[in-house]
Amino acid sequence: MKIMFRVVGLIMLMLAGITGAAAALEIHYPVDGIYVTRSDTLVIKAGKGVDGLVLELGGERSDLIDISGQEYRALFKDMLILQPSYDPGPNRIRVFGYSEGEKVAEAEVNFYYRTQRTGAPPQGYRPFVMHTAENEKVCVGCHKLSLQQADLDFPSAQENPCVGCHRGMLRPEWVHGPAGAFECGSCHDLQNEQGRFRERAVNAALCTECHRDIVDAFLEQEYVHGPVTVGLCNLCHDSHASPHQGQLVDSVNDLCLGCHEGVGKGAHVVRGIDGKAHPLSGVPDPGRPGELSCTGCHNPHGGKGRYYFQRGIRTRMELCQSCHRK
């Protein structure tokens, strides 16, 4: 695995009121013992006297990152903000601080990167809540966090107070309408029982505020896919943005096989006289433009048959004949 880091120039996290006393090298995010669901932010405070940093992730070390330049210090002081690439599952980050070529400090965190494939993290890992009074002390030197509810809906990236830190959520190709219009207040409250800036509700309880008709149509199917039945929209869809159509959290087949992994391990549907099974990908989809995938045959929300076949099809033979008409 290669280490992929780049400084996020638009994010300027730093401590407010840094005094002349030396500050210890510290990894502000992620912190030790948490689990994360995104691989897009690493925040380090170097501490006074540290002019370079070396990072170790996945057993590989970066070159020395020079943070001593006047221009850099004017923007970021002693903070370094990076976009990492984590492996699904357990991760360890080690950071080494240098002064004039000599190692003077180091820090380490162990955390878990939860993805669709990994499922729930092992016992002992806790979720991370950024917007607490203690955590926000790190940010208030540069970020306005004393907000009114209306402040969450500034219509531009330059004015919206959320975008400075969370721009990475909006970069992929497929963007949810309210997120793309910087209407963060459509889903997030300044203060609620879930915590500061958290969603007013979770999963279907929130999604149905706008998408009631769509969800009702899913639930009216004779057979409904389990996650839809219990309202787990975010199990498959990213509520901000995604590189995958439909704002899926992963590619179609990787998402489906994350739960139905047995399908990918053996022959699917049928094994012909040549020993080959029906393909899951890699060939054109005869029923629609593009490559064949799980959703070429199955509707991921529900259907008239127990296997959620597309186009209202109930039986396997009827499905086969929709493409194989000989």
Set out the fold topology.
Layout: E1 26-29, E2 34-36, E3 42-45, E4 52-57, E5 60-61, E6 65-66, H1 70-76, E7 79-82, E8 89-99, E9 102-113, E10 126-127, H2 133-136, H3 163-166, E11 174-175, H4 177-180, H5 204-219, E12 223-224, H6 226-229, E13 241-242, H7 252-259, E14 302-303, H8 316-323
Parallel strand pairs: 2-9, 2-10
Antiparallel strand pairs: 1-3, 3-7, 4-5, 4-6, 4-8, 8-9, 11-13, 12-14
Give an overview in words.
The protein has two domains: 26-136, Sandwich (Immunoglobulin-like), CATH 2.60.40.10; 204-323, no CATH class. 17% of the residues lie in helices and 18% in strands. By secondary structure, it is of the alpha+beta class. It contains eight helices and 14 strands. The chain is globular, with a radius of gyration of 24 Å. Strands 2, 4, 5, 6, 8, 9 and 10 form a seven-stranded mixed β-sheet that branches. Strands 1-3-7 form a three-stranded antiparallel β-sheet, with no helix packed on it. The protein has a two-stranded antiparallel sheet with strand order 11-13. The model is unreliable at 1-23 (pLDDT under 50). A hairpin with a 2-residue loop joins strand 8 and strand 9 (102-113). The longest helix has 16 residues, at 204-219. The protein has helices at residues 70-76, 133-136, 163-166, 177-180, 204-219, 226-229, 252-259, 316-323; strands at residues 26-29, 34-36, 42-45, 52-57, 60-61, 65-66, 79-82, 89-99, 102-113, 126-127, 174-175, 223-224, 241-242, 302-303.
